[in-house]
Amino acid sequence: MALARERVITPGGDTACQYRRDVGTTGVVFLVVNGMIGSGIFGLPELLHDAVGTFAPWLLLAGGLLMSSVFLCFADLGRLTDRSGGPQRFVTDAFGHFAGFQVGWLYYFGRMVAHAANVTVLIAYVAALWAPIGVGAQRSFAVTLIIAAVIVSVLGNSVAGHTTARRMTASLSNDGLIPDWFGSVSRWGTPANSIVFFGVGALMFALSGTFVTLAVSGTLARLLVYIASIGALPLLRKSVGLKALSLPTGIAAFVALLLCSWASFQSSRQQWALMAAFLSVGTILFFVARYSRSAASKLQS
C-alpha cells in the first residue's frame, strides 16, 4: 500500500517512479478492518429488516458462511503466484491481458460506486444533525454522539477506499493498459490525475443514484470479478503442476460459482447497464493505450 512515489535514477540514467511504502503494517491492518466494516452496516439493516423481518441477522450469518467458499478459492489463488495484482493478475495469467484488464477495470468500477454509496450514507447521517431529533437535552446529545461516530466511521472507510482505489488506474497505466495520463505523477509524488478521475467519478455516481442502487452495482461488479477469478483457478493450478482442482477446492469453487452467479442475476437491468457502460469506457481506453504505444514504437524504430 503506497500513497506516494519516490524517483529513482536507474543505472542507465533513466528516471523511474516507484511507490513508497509509507503506510506500514499497522496502517494496512486498520485499512483492511475499516474496509471490512464498511458503511453498509449503517445503511442495510433497516432495508433487510423491511424485507425479511427478524430473520435479517440469520440471513447475514448465512450469507457470510456461504461467502467463505469464495475466500477459500482466493486463498488458493493467492498461493499460486508471487506477483501483485490480485484478481487482475489471476485472470491475466490465465486468459490474457485483455481479459485481465476487464477484470481490473470492473473491480475499479466496484470500488468507485462503493465510494459513492459511502457518500450517500454520509450525507444521510449528516443531514440528521439538522433534522428534529426528539425532545430533551440528553436524548439530543446521545443521538448526536451516535451520528458523529457513524460519520467518523464512514469517513474513515471512504478515505481508505480512496487511498487504495486511486492506485488502481495508476497501476493500469504503468502496465500499459490505459493511457499514460492516468499514471501522471504530481510534484508531491502522487498519481494526481488518477485521484481526480476517481473523485469526480465517485461524485457523479453519488449524485445520480441512491445508496441501494450504488451498493448493489458495486456488489455486482465484485461478484463478476469473483466469478472470473475462480474460473482462472484450474488453469493456474495446472500451470504450477497441480491437479486442476482438489476435492476441497472443487467443492468450494462449485459453491462459490453457484452463489455468485445466482446473486449477480438478482441485480436490475439498470445496474447491469451502468456496469456495461463503464466497461465500454474502459475498453476504449484500453485500445487507445495500445494504439498510442504501437504508434510510438513505430516512430522510434
Structural account:
By secondary structure, the chain is mostly helical. The chain contains 11 helices and 2 strands. Strands 1-2 form a two-stranded antiparallel sheet. A hairpin with a 5-residue loop joins strand 1 and strand 2. The two termini are 37 Å apart. The N terminus is likely disordered.
Concise description?
With 301 residues, this protein is mainly alpha-helical. It has helices at 24-37, 40-43, 45-52, 56-78, 87-95, 97-128, 137-174, 192-208, 211-239, 247-264, 269-300; strands spanning 4-9, 15-20.
Total helical segments: 11
Structural class call reads mainly alpha
> Structurally, how many domains make up the residues?
1
- Cα(first) to Cα(last) distance is 37 Å
User: Which geometry do the CA atoms define?
Assistant: globular
Mean pLDDT: 76
Furnish the topology, listing elements before pairings.
Layout: E1 4-9, E2 15-20, H1 24-37, H2 40-43, H3 45-52, H4 56-78, H5 87-95, H6 97-128, H7 137-174, H8 192-208, H9 211-239, H10 247-264, H11 269-300
Helix pairs in contact: 1-7, 4-9, 4-10, 5-6, 5-9, 6-7, 6-8, 6-9, 6-11, 7-8, 9-10, 9-11
Task: Offer a few descriptive terms.
74% helix, globular, 301 residues
